[in-house]
Amino acid sequence: MPVNIPALQAQINAIQNSVVRTNAQALFDTAQSSNNDILFQTLEDTIGKSASGEGTGIFYSGHDRNGNNNHNSATQCQDHLGDGNSYNIFETEVGQYVDNIGAQRLSYMPEGTRDQLWNLASSMMADQAGPNVIAFVDGAAGSSTWMNHEITALLENGNTSINTLDTSTLSNSSQSVEDISGESFCFMSRPPPHKTDLQVPRPAFPVPSTQLDGKAVETDFDTLDKQGKDA
After folding, report:
1. pLDDT tens column, 140-154
2. What is the CA radius of gyration of the chain?
3. Of 82, 86, 168, nearest to 133 (Cα)?
C-alpha cells in the first residue's frame, strides 16, 4: 500500500523533539527529491517503531582517552547490570529494524540513507530514554552521532541525568562531553553481591531436632544466618 505522503509529513511535523523531527524531515526531503517510494516506506516504518527498552539506556561513542573502545565498555556495563536492567540502540525495536535493512533494499535508496536512518534511530532512543542514562563517551569525536544527535536530543527531552550529572547544568553538546567524560557510573549502579550478603537457605519442610549428648537441640536458622554474615 503506497505511503500517504501528506499524512507522513503531518506525522513528522507533530514530533516534539526538534532533533528527531529534523532527522526525520531530512529523510523525507531526500525521499521527495528522489521520488523514492521505498525510502518513504522505510521512513514511515522507522518513526513508527519504539526506541526504548527495559531499564537504563546505554550510550557509547568512539574510544576513551586511554584507547579503550567505548562500545566494549558499554557491553561490560550491561553484563554488570544484568538482563532486563539496561539496553542499547541495537536492543530497541527501531535499532533492530534499521540494522536489518538489507543491502538490496538500500541499493534502491540514495547514497548515505543508512547513516541518516541511524541518526534518526539514535535520536529517537535519546528522546525516549530516561529518566537517567549511562554514557561511555569519553573521547567522542565532534562528528559523532553522540555529539550531533544523541546528546542534544537527551537534553531536549528533559532527561534527568547522564552518568548522574544533572542535565540542567549542561548548556550545549560541546560542553557536555567535557563535563561527563571519564569513568562512567555504571559500576556504581549495582555492586556485585558480597559473601556477607548471602543467607543460609531455609528449607521449605519441617526440620527435626538433632541429638547432642542425649539432649534434643532445635535447629536455629537465625543463628546460622548470623554466622553466614560474620564469615
Report:
1. 888 999 999 999 899
2. 25
3. 86
